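for the writeup, i need someone to sanity check this before i put it in the appendix. the sequnce is what the collaborator sent (i think, or maybe the updated version? ugh). structure was predicted straight from it, no edits. if anything looks off just tell me and ill rerun, i have time this weekend
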Amino acid sequence: MNVLVINGPNLNLTGERNPSQYGSDNYETLCAYIKETAKQIGFSECEVFQSNHEGDIIDELHAARNEFSGVILNAGAYTHYSYAIRDAIEAIKIPVIEVHLSNVHAREDFRRVSVIAPACKGSIAGFGKISYKAALTALFDTLVDNLG
């Protein structure tokens, strides 16, 4: 089983941008944590992709359907208004778990609405980088349950 982790706009500035919300680890450290955690959980491969461009994220989701068992997606601000990303999630027919470093439900009103959540298997938010660990664990267990 393999997993693709997609990080959206401004995630490349993790550690620099509002550390009280997103943590102090830089993006490279976050990626290393994600890959090591995926390995420990049991994934054979974990690829991490980041883009600030909606179309690139959609292209990665489309490609994932033929290459990966599932996707962890931190769509950043696209979470709140990208129906195109939502449609891509619905189209690919592999499980996608929405993840956020910050607790989006404790922030500004506009951040409390996720247009992608209904297309995702589930959502995890508010635990910093541990949100990725929880999402990877949930995805792995979902995939194993589907095999059995």
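The chain has one domain: 2-147. The first helix runs from residue 19 to 22.
thx in advance!!
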